[in-house]
Specification:
CATH architecture of the largest domain: 3-Layer(aba) Sandwich
Shape: elongated
Strand order of the largest sheet: 5-8-11-4-12
Strand content: 5-15%
CATH topology of the largest domain: Rossmann fold
Helix content: 40-55%
Bound molecules: adenosine-5'-diphosphate, magnesium ion
Number of helices: 19
Number of domains: 4
């Protein structure tokens, strides 16, 4: 009778005969709502309640009690049951309670994620650009969105990897759910595991309560693993298992947790090269690369710069409540010549600054002065490692020699500049004999 009432309202119902069957179903299906009698042929409703709470603290459990056994109902509520129904169950009352439980459950998950989501979200993502390779990326995103395959977005910092991941989510059937993200490079190694997988109460000193990890929070939605190339080796194996089995344990827990997540990963490292250098687990690289998407660097699609610039100017004028601004013609040309090592992020930052600095209605070269005309250095980007721009190829000895020589050369040139070209003074600052400095200047062609 209960099944009929629930199914008539569009709910999916799975029945279990006793506690062991219920516990198995809980593990396999992770239902949103559990409805259990307190008396069962084997085990009891309290056992089901505990198993449900163990698996997912947010799981809504409604218990059914015989008329008159109010103490049992109170005990169940104390153990975490959401509510109780007295038998014989009135179907309307049941439906009301189930609706409420479903709403409460949605709210609980949404609450945790809403703050992060709000901060990260700036409306639905628009991918600006007409470059054929960028169009290809958009096409791939559409194709991948319809499936549940793991997607790996590769590309330099600032090329739009996260933007693509968000667009993918917005295009997918899971778009209603939250976008759960974690930056593997930004979280200290010691905390990363609990952030990903959560922990049980008392799993370690300071673990005062049970905390769900991102894998759990992303249930039925996407999980964005940003900078997955920076994942420490020991965690690579754990992630691999979670991806393959869609199952993991919380830190300090023994119960395997089954989740249904769609993983989207991004990295600015070349994973295949990292595998070759034995810094990355080959199986994980393989597992992640099911559907690879490469974000092209901005210098390889400079035709998109005017369109991007216009898009950002309009956006910042709107955000900053300014009247709309235009670029002086020479400025657009200048921007297109600039190699923009920080990619779209750098362009966006420059333009934001220019919009703030511009008092008239035209953005001139000097508004962009700071990064466009100065020496070509990457905009400070917490995500970029300086080693990405260093040639580390060849054997250990070769690479070390080359990098040291380059470093030495820079150091000498800089010191000589600081010393106003005075070699004696420079040798003093460097604390090396003048003779050595002279020979090095010759060697490096700096004299
Ligand atoms: N094609 C694009 N159109 C519009 N904005 C873009 C585009 N590509 C990147 N951006 C913007 O540039 C910034 C950096 O992009 P992001 O996705 O964070 O790069 P990544 O993750 O590759 O470092 C973001 O603010 C993003 O919205
Ligand atoms: Mg990023």
């Amino acid at each position: 009778m209960l099944r009929h009432a629930l199914e008539a309202q569009g709910h999916t119902v799975v029945e279990a005969r006793d506690q062991p069957e219920a516990v198995q179903a809980l593990r396999d299906l992770r239902p949103g709502i559990v409805l259990s009698d307190l008396r069962l042929p084997e085990g009891d409703g309290f056992g089901v309640l505990r198993a449900a709470k163990e698996l997912d603290p947010e799981m809504a459990v409604i218990v059914m009690t015989a008329f008159g056994s109010i103490q049992d109902a109170v005990a169940a509520i104390k153990e975490g049951a959401l509510d109780f129904l007295a038998k014989p169950v009135d179907p309307d009352h049941l439906l009301l309670m189930v609706e409420r439980a479903a709403a409460q459950r949605r709210m609980a998950t949404e609450n945790i994620l809403l703050k992060e989501e709000l901060a990260a979200r700036r409306g639905a993502p628009t991918i600006v650009g007409e470059n054929p390779r960028l169009k290809q990326v958009t096409l791939s995103l559409h194709r991948a969105a319809a499936t549940d395959t793991t997607v790996l977005v590769e590309g330099e910092s600032g090329t739009g990897k996260e933007l693509f991941a968000r667009a993918l989510h917005a295009l997918s059937p899971r778009a209603d759910g939250p976008f759960v993200a974690i930056n593997c490079a930004a979280i200290p190694e010691t905390l990363l595991e609990t952030e990903l997988f959560g922990h049980e109460k008392g799993a370690f000193t300071g673990a005062a309560t049970r905390k769900p990890g991102k894998f759990e929070l992303a249930h039925r939605g996407p999980l964005f693993l940003d900078e997955i190339g920076d994942l420490p080796l020991p965690l690579q194996a754990k992630i691999l298992r979670a991806l393959e089995e869609k199952r993991f344990e919380r830190l300090g827990g023994t119960v395997p947790i089954q989740v249904d997540v769609r993983v989207v990963a991004a990295t600015n490292r070349n994973l295949k090269a990292a595998v070759a250098a034995r810094q990355y687990c080959e199986d994980l690289c393989f597992r992640l690369s099911v559907f690879p998407i490469t974000a092209p660097p901005l210098r390889e699609r400079q035709e998109d710069i005017p369109m991007l610039a216009k898009f950002f100017v309009d956006r910042f004028c709107r955000d900053l409540n300014k009247k709309s601004l235009a670029f002086a013609p020479s400025v657009v040309e200048e921007m297109q010549k600039y190699p923009c090592p920080g990619n779209v992020r750098e362009l966006q930052n420059c333009i934001e600054r220019a919009v703030i600095l511009t008092e008239g209605d035209t953005i001139h070269g000097h508004h962009l002065h700071l990064s466009f005309r100065g020496p070509i250095v990457a905009a400070p980007d917490p995500e970029a490692s300086p080693w990405q721009r260093v040639d580390l190829s060849g054997s250990m000895t070769e690479a070390t020699r080359r990098v040291l020589a380059e470093m030495e050369q820079h150091k000498i040139a800089q010191t000589l500049r600081d010393a106003g070209g005075n070699k004696g003074r420079a040798a003093e600052i460097l604390q090396i004999p003048l003779r050595l400095l002279t020979s090095k200047l010759r060697e490096y062609g700096l004299d």
